[in-house]
Q: What sequence folds into this?
């Protein structure tokens, strides 16, 4: 902005000042009736209502999409070809019944399933509805891969198929509700007693090799999991303590528990 | 011409103004009392910052129109109504200058330079003006207004701070810094001579 200093400029007289004084013109310009419609309160209110309606419609149309997905999920088989059960459907009444049936089937007293990949579901309850649970709508179980199920309260009940993981460099296992995109694994192998951590979204091959030797009593913690919902919303599961505990190999002779899964 | 002192008021005067404002919210015709009271002061404020008399009429009219339109939103915070009007005037002046790409005028009466001369310790008026020409464009809008209102319009720090929406102490500190800048500039000019 250019600035100009004016020294001793002639100041206007009162009469000159009053030349520009015109209250009636001011009132005329102020006349509320001359306010354009787009500035009126009615227009503002109508615009506001339209915006609210659009937000409402958008929100519920998106919710509707999710509901449709849930209906499709209901029609899916709950058991896969390996005999594992994917319990990640939204829990409508009939699904709950199926799930309960499944739990009975895989209870500790009867926990042997085909291909030695039974999942102990004795910890299964409907008790967990934390923030994450809300986000993934009643998914008490999160399927990590074909044979590992993470209980949403932070426990993993499942047999860890590391060979399977080796074929999947990404632990990006979609459930109908959630995809894991990054994670952190901490583990202590009993025979080495070294605490190790891996984080990222790829398990390095060397670690996979090491994990293949995981035996019973070795403890693995999968934490700091970031997952995404189908709409792309990121969910950080780091407050949960996912414990992956299990046997890697079927060792009947040594008496290592084959099918039972271990809770923390 | 010496401006009428319309700024400092008693509590009862401020209460009277508030009553007029309340009445104006119901009927805009009541605004005439405030319009008559403050028109001259606002016009002079605007005129001192613009080149053309006609522009000053337009901007002053715009100030009162804005005030009338926004009167229902005016909240009495213990400050005189005039400080609110001056704030509107300040913003309308700068809006006008921006929209019309006009020159910002600094209106100085020779007699009003005395205080500034005393403050800076320079008695040569020409040199002070030369220095002001250099330093004024470097100041922010608020700093410029502060200097103008304090030294060229003889407003009190209280009044200036209320118009600029800063605390009185803050206005003093800013003023002190501007004077310091001015002194440094004056030293540099003198050395270069």
A:
């Amino acid at each position: 902005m250019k600035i100009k200093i004016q020294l001793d400029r002639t100041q206007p007289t009162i009469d000159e000042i009053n030349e520009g004084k015109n209250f009636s013109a001011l009132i005329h310009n102020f006349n509320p009736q001359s306010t354009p419609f787009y500035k009126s309160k009615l227009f503002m209110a109508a615009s506001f209502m339209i915006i609210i309606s659009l937000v409402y419609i958008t929100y519920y149309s998106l919710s509707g999409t999710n509901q449709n997905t849930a209906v499709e999920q209901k029609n899916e088989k709950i058991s896969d070809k390996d005999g594992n059960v994917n319990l990640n459907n939204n829990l409508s009444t009939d699904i709950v019944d199926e799930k309960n049936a499944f739990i009975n089937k895989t209870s500790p007293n009867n926990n042997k399933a085909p291909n030695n990949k039974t999942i102990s579901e004795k910890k299964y309850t409907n008790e967990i509805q934390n923030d994450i649970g809300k986000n993934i709508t009643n998914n008490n179980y999160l399927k990590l891969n074909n044979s590992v199920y993470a209980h949403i309260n932070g426990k993993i009940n499942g047999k860890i198929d590391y060979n399977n993981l080796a074929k999947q460099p990404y632990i990006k296992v979609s459930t109908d509700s959630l995809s894991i995109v990054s994670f952190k694994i901490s583990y202590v192998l009993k025979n080495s007693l070294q605490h190790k951590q891996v984080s990222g979204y790829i398990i390095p091959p060397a670690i996979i090799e090491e994990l293949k030797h995981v035996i019973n009593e070795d403890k693995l913690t999968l934490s700091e999991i970031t997952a995404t919902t189908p709409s792309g919303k990121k969910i950080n599961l780091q407050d949960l303590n996912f414990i992956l505990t299990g046997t890697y190999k079927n060792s009947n002779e040594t008496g290592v528990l084959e099918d039972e899964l271990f809770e923390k | 011409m010496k401006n009428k002192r319309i700024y400092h008021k008693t509590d009862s005067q401020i209460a009277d103004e508030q009553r007029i404002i309340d009445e104006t919210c119901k009927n805009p015709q009541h605004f005439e009392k405030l319009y008559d009271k403050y028109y001259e002061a606002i016009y002079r404020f605007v005129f001192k910052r613009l080149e053309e008399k006609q522009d000053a009429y337009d901007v002053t009219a715009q100030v009162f129109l804005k005030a009338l339109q926004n009167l229902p939103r005016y909240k009495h915070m213990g400050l005189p109504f005039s400080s609110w009007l001056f704030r509107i005037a300040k913003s309308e002046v700068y809006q006008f200058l921006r929209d019309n790409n006009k020159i910002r005028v600094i209106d100085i009466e020779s007699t009003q330079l005395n205080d500034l001369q005393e403050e800076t310790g320079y008695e040569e008026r020409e040199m002070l003006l030369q220095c002001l020409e250099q330093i004024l464009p470097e100041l922010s809008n608020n700093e410029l207004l502060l200097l103008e209102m304090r030294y060229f319009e003889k407003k009190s720090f209280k009044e200036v701070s209320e118009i600029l929406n800063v605390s009185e102490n803050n206005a003093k500190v800013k003023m002190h810094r501007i004077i310091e800048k001015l002194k440094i500039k004056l030293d540099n000019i003198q050395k270069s001579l």
